[in-house]
Amino acid sequence: MSRCLTCEAVVQEPCYLNESCPNLNFNVSHHGHYVALASETLCLVGLDVMVADADEHETPEEYIKNFRSCFTSLEWNNIISVGPDPNSLLDQFHRYWCLKESYIKAIGIGLGFDLQRAEFFFSDGNVWSDTACLRLGGIERTDWCFHLSHLNNGHWICVAKGPPADAVESFKQTLQN
Fold first, then answer.
1. 5-9, 53-57, 122-126, 157-161 — which is least confidently predicted?
2. Residue 17: pLDDT over 80
């Protein structure tokens, strides 16, 4: 790497500046037993890893209800459709949370984004599918792809890839055409 620095004046995130690889985009996430890194030279990339657990002072149902306002009706119905099994409920909740986080990290905005604007669904109708689709403001975005994987010890990971044009303005300043 020729130069790696924190672009705090622009996006308050690490960015990589190298003339031989001008558009290297990367994202890092950590939770539980894992630290993950994804990189891409042609697309925006976002990544989130989560361990499917709940606060020890709440039931899984109580825990996920704290986040109800972050999900669309479709997403919420898919989360609770897995039934009363606490492990399945936490797994499905964290899968959707990874989808949301990977998207907002890819575009460079973070939790300042209205999470209900980005609705995730599974084109095959299987809520346990390993690929998801995005509707942004009600419009399906086929130029984005999301891949979910189950790791050991109850961890879930999601990698999001999408067009550089979707980056927020401050993040676009770190990208070259």
1. 5-9
2. no
Percent of the chain with pLDDT over 70: 84
How many domains does the chain divide into? 1
Q: Residue 136: inside a domain, yes or no?
A: yes
pLDDT of residue 110: 74
Residue 122's domain is classified under what CATH number?
Answer: 3.90.470.20
DSSP 22-55: TT-EEEEEEETTEEEEEEESSSEEEEEEEE----
The CA-atom distances, in angstroms, between 128 and each of 6, 37, 121 are 37, 23, 11
In-domain check, residue 54: yes
Residue 18, in any domain of the structure = no
Q: What is the chain's Cα-based Rg? A: 17
